[in-house]
Amino acid sequence: MMELTKQQNKVLERIKAFMDSDASVFIPRGFAGIGKTTMVKAVTDYIAQRLDVKLMALTGRAVRVFAQETGMV
Length: 73
Known about the structure:
By secondary structure, the chain is mostly helical. The protein contains three helices and no strands.
């Protein structure tokens, strides 16, 4: 298993809180290269074991990155 940084662990805690809530959308934000896609990949792999997962992105480039890194869009 990948070792997460302190900041990634904070993000993971927010994701866990989201998953325990009634909210239906979680939007990761931040500058390029900070690990958003890495976190999305880890979470979607986990969730996909139990549920159907679909990813959405605001730009064509983001869609391509998600498709390339996660195999999902």
